[in-house]
């Protein structure tokens, strides 16, 4: 069986407006099944993850997909099967992580420090999705043709 592997474009450049918000550390665009579509880190960060590497962004993407699936299961139980997840937020002792739907089959994740204005970050995430959501979308991949 043979197939064609298509390299996905890196959408990290679209995330720069988010990483320029005070307190935002990292942003990632992820497909619904956990593939990293792009990521960006704020300039001049210090600490344990000062610059999100591709490997770390891929791990964050997988975690985002898992959180979204968990959220979907939870709202399905509480509000019925058709209920969707619009946004998730995690709070830790070091900051916040926000996840939001970002077009068809894609999600946007942003990590902040504790001093970030989380309401502003969530609003700017929604504005970014409204502005460039079609570029953030990740259509389902086509099945590979069967070879004879």
Automatic annotation (TrEMBL):
SMART domains: Robl_LC7. Pfam families: Robl_LC7. Gene3D superfamilies: Dynein light chain 2a, cytoplasmic. Residues 12-112 form the Roadblock/LAMTOR2 domain. It comes from the Bacteria. This is Roadblock/LC7 domain-containing protein. It comes from Streptomyces tardus.
């Amino acid at each position: 069986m043979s197939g064609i592997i298509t390299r996905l474009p890196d959408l990290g450049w679209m995330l720069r407006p988010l990483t320029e918000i005070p307190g935002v550390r990292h942003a990632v665009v992820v497909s619904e099944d956990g593939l990293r579509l792009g990521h960006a880190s704020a300039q001049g960060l210090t600490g344990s993850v000062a610059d999100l590497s591709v490997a770390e962004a891929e791990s964050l993407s997988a975690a985002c997909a898992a959180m979204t699936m968990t959220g979907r299961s939870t709202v399905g139980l509480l509000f019925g099967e058709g209920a969707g997840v619009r946004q998730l937020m995690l709070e830790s002792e070091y900051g916040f992580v926000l996840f939001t739907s970002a077009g068809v089959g894609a999600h946007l994740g942003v990590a902040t420090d504790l001093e970030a204005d989380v309401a502003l970050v969530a609003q700017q995430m929604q504005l970014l999705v409204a502005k460039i959501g079609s570029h953030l979308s990740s259509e389902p991949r086509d099945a590979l043709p069967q070879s004879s």
